[in-house]
Design a protein that fits this description.
451 residues, alpha/beta, eight-stranded parallel β-sheet, 12 strands
Length: 451
Amino acid sequence: MACLQNKYCILFASALMSQKPGTSPTLFYKWNALSLIIFLHLIWVLLSYSTSSSSSLSYALLQSGCFGLFHYLAGKFSAAHSVTWTYGVNYGRIADNLPAPESVVTLLKANKINHIRIYNADHGVLRAFKGSGIEVIIGLPNEYLTDISIGEDRAMNWVKENVQAFLPGTRIRGIAVGNEILGGGPLELWEVLLPAVRNVYSSLYRLGLKDTVQVSSPHSEAVFANSFPPSACIFRPDVLPFMRPLLQFFYTIGSPFYINAYPFLAYKNEPEHIDINYALFKHNPGIYDAKTKLHYDNMFEAQVDAAYAALEKVGFTKMEVIVSETGWASRGDPNEAGATVKNARTYNRNLRKLLAKKKGTPFRPKMVVRAYIFALFNENSKPGPTSERNFGLFKPDGSIAYDIGFTGLIPSAASSSLLSFEDIAAQGWLRSSCSLVFMACTVVLLQSLGL
């Protein structure tokens, strides 16, 4: 059996390494990748069905080596052909009944959510994400801005304690300096936002982290004077003196423009003027922007393009727009139109499908849309109307709030519970699971290679 396996392996390896005349290097590379996948899986199958008891340890070692090699090569191919991420989630924690951060990591990884944003730099959370591979944007809360803006030494201390101390184990990839400062809140914070941003960036620069950790500052729709139609969008005159130098600095350091875009809030405020199907990505007549001659069939993309239009008007045509928050409440007060489980499920399911396409907007078709969904959990301690406490994709116990294709930590009416690796092994599914891993990885690699 071993001789037969060796014979087939050598023949297969020789075949996949031979480039036929006239084959382009790119095509040759792609088919070599596919051949290597099949080759490694063939070895696995042959070894899995071997019945030689005298060399079981050797086969086990070979299987482990084969699987390890496949994992390594898959990582290399994926890195070389990776595509832009599009789907992230905001992990708010204004609640007294949420799962432990370690359980949150399990939940995120099980649902393949690899990008999150948190609103502070909680050390317990950052420790829990160590080694998870999940990329994190941390928040520098509004109440710290004045202090951070005063001197770079204070910014340096904050960055050392809350960023550098957790790298590289925790993949901190951004700092959101403040949240929704311009256009709302006290004018004093408008004035200290740019100095705080500069000091944080300077600290990252001095620590050699400027290429690892990006600096940004999310804005609300309140920074705009008009956003309909999208091409008419402009920044508010009172905001512009603060916004323009901030944008100039972000453009200089290569940071995007972050906007919190909520079709839910627009519909809630004007339900008599907005077609809810337009807000929910459902079939509707849409709107036509006469200036750009573009048609929009959903409000989300219209809001993103409105931000692009406003940036263009002040000279920042190449700045990327990323949606730092968007979501739909599943429950609200009687005067909060549209806040239902059905609408929340529809919005988030359709948004997830849209982002999975990895496409641009009508106005910026080559700029892939990226967004952080608000929010991971319902947060029972948030102030304000009922809707504020009901944006979660998941309930505090870890079960799904409604079904959009995610799996909860515990069973719910719409989803089965997660099975741990130990459970799978105990049930004797380990061998078939490894085969499934091979097949799943094959599909991913084929997609990334364009085959």
